[in-house]
Design a protein that fits this description.
Elements: H1 2-24, H2 31-38, H3 42-48, H4 52-67, H5 69-72, H6 81-96, H7 99-112, H8 116-125, H9 127-143, H10 153-173, H11 182-198
Helix pairs in contact: 1-2, 1-4, 4-8, 6-9, 6-10, 6-11, 7-8, 8-9, 9-10, 10-11
Length: 218
Amino acid sequence: MPRTRSAERRNLILRAAGELFIAKGYSRVTMEDVLTEVGGSKGTLYRHFADKAALFQASVEALCDEWSKPVHTFTPPGTDLTETLTALGGHFAALVLTPEAIALHRLVTSEAERMPEVGRAFFEHGPSAGQAVLAKYLRQARDAGEIELATDPVRAAAQLYQAMLGDAQMRLLTNSPHKPDDAEVRESIAVAVRVFLHGTATAPAAGDTEDPVPAIRT
């Protein structure tokens, strides 16, 4: 029971700290602010987290883990690979394009040069973890002979993710005046999956056997 209460207390601190950091930024949040939100003693707070930097990193990890649960528990809608990748892209969009996720991304980016360990934690618990899930389905499709990959499945997953959501995410991160709407995001995901699986090259004309890539003569 004491161990359970300690874990619950730690999670309560992390949730409160995460909300404060997103709302006010790292520099404007103090340990006393967190105590005001959760109550308790300084001794308890510092027993869990040595300082504000440790609390910040832990709260970033906790937020990424909490928000990404739907991706990690994703179940394909069927056996069709296009449907699977498109549905997974929708899960990614629901995770990374929310105002809270965009605010956290901006916050971590602004602090990552000074606190590289926070940047690494964000990448490992966020983008890298999501790419691993996507890579799993690409690897399964490759091993089943459905697709050929010219690169490692994790790298292919990163490329597909960027094609699906990179533009929408960048526009939100930079506060572009043209915000992507839901229909635009869905179209971006669908087009990215189609191009990833089928490419953009046109089929050669009937009877055309010429190599489309000319040989380099020296």
